[in-house]
Design brief:
five-stranded parallel β-sheet, alpha/beta, 13 helices, about 20% strand, 20 strands
Length: about 425
């Protein structure tokens, strides 16, 4: 019998069933994540059934989809959610602090070896800190809020080994787009994608967040990184731990003889910038193979790529230059904390001097909600995670997914072109 993968080990550690051979396992969870748009859907049932929260300290809630609300209807949804959370005196209600997935990984609730569920598919992003995290529907989240448990089927695991050294112009977004090209949309359906960083320089934490975030675009149940020194350093810094203090979580690595459905090795040494063309995150090509296309909009943000390193990369590209006059360049940091860090680093000034405009930390343009929604004639290059028809606005608009560095270069050029990385701006 083969050894256990990371998701096997974490599910076993949280299992409440004596029969470890059962197809579905009842498990305890370490945290539940919820936001205004989806949590509002379960409130009526919660109150009608007279339920209570199993452990308020393990629930993180935020208003990120409608922050601030752009319509009266969305204001009513937001107020319903906030009134419910305040009425229950929820201790981890993060009011107007940013996107729920970013707030989760900034919080001590998110620890190595943990099991987390959330009312949004991109909850999977927490896998970047060696956590098994997954999104569920409102009904499943209602049950978990009341019991602290859920059911999971042990997923088969695909191991992905990153080797080589990533070129300076490429990043985590290019890596996960390449993985989407290899596996396709749904190519890891109800699998655990287990990431192993065997690169010579190690992938920075922000790149890992980008990779885990878009694992769900490949259909994965989990997108979890094997614990290493990068994981430990991130958690120590975030949690304010000294060198001798133990981590709050339990880092997990797979057994030496772990059984994988498939093993993929990605040598990053020659990985160039990647772009996903409309209308699928899996429609990926190298930038160098793109047909020249004029753009009207550039978007840097979302839970996929709105972190400090992303804003830094864009600032490096636009420093001392001007955004093309035909392009609206919208920047939405993933959280207020990220925005403050970008302010202190001078990136906000650099980007605004170049012609970019910053908006409040929220889901905003990514979901076609507000703060940069696309019209019928708009063509957008975006660091968000989905480019389905109508995702960012009008059905006839077109969105190209790319890294923050590519977004910035296209904003300067006024187009996405095959020579975007071959010519000096």
């Amino acid at each position: 019998m083969s050894g256990r993968t990371i998701s096997d080990i974490i599910i076993d550690a949280h299992s409440l069933d004596e029969d470890r051979s059962a197809l579905f396992r009842r498990v305890s969870v370490d945290a539940v994540l919820g936001h205004d748009a989806t949590t509002a859907l379960l409130i009526d049932d919660f109150e009608r059934r007279g339920l209570s929260i199993w452990d308020k300290s393990k629930v993180l809630l935020t208003n990120d989809h409608f922050a601030p609300p752009a319509t009266a209807e969305r204001a009513d949804i937001s107020n319903k959610f906030l009134g419910w959370a305040r009425g229950l005196d929820m201790p981890n209600l993060m009011l107007d602090k940013g996107i729920c997935h970013q707030l989760l990984v900034e919080h001590r609730l998110c620890q190595p070896g943990g099991l987390i569920v959330g009312a949004d598919s991109h909850t999977i992003m927490a896998g970047a800190v060696n956590t098994c995290a997954t999104g569920m529907g409102a009904t499943d989240i209602l049950f978990t809020l009341a019991t602290g448990t859920t059911w999971l089927r042990l997923p088969p695991t695909i191991a992905v080994r990153f080797t080589g050294a990533l070129p300076p112009e490429s990043g985590g977004r290019d890596i996960v787009l390449e993985l989407l090209r290899v596996l396709g949309e749904g190519g890891a359906q109800y699998r655990s994608l287990e990431f192993h960083d065997e690169t010579s320089t190690r992938l920075p934490q922000d790149d890992r967040f980008a990779i885990s975030n878009m694992a769900v675009e490949i259909g994965a149940k989990f997108g979890v990184f094997a614990a290493d020194e990068v994981t430990e350093a991130h958690c120590r810094d975030r949690d304010g731990l000294g060198p001798g203090e133990p981590l709050l979580g339990t880092p997990v690595r797979p057994d030496a003889d772990a059984g994988y459905e498939r093993v993929i090795e990605l040598d990053l040494t020659d990985l160039t910038a990647r772009v996903a063309k409309p209308w699928s995150p899996g429609n990926v090509v190298p930038v160098a193979e793109l047909e020249p296309t004029e753009i009207t909009s550039a978007f840097l943000g979302s839970c996929a790529s709105g972190r400090l390193a992303d804003i830094r990369d864009a600032a490096e590209e636009v420093a001392g230059k001007r955004v093309h006059p035909n392009v609206r360049f919208v920047v939405i940091p993933a959280s207020v904390e990220v925005f403050k860090q970008a302010l202190r680093a001078g990136y906000v000034e650099v980007l605004t001097e170049a012609g970019a405009q910053f908006n409040h930390s929220s889901c905003g343009a990514c979901g076609g909600i507000d703060k940069g929604v696309l019209g019928a004639a708009d063509v957008c290059v975006s660091s968000s995670n989905r480019n389905f028809r109508g995702r960012m606005g009008h059905w006839d608009s077109r969105t190209y997914l790319a890294s923050p560095r590519t977004v910035a270069r296209a904003a300067l050029r006024g187009a996405i072109t095959p020579d975007l990385y071959r010519e000096a701006q």
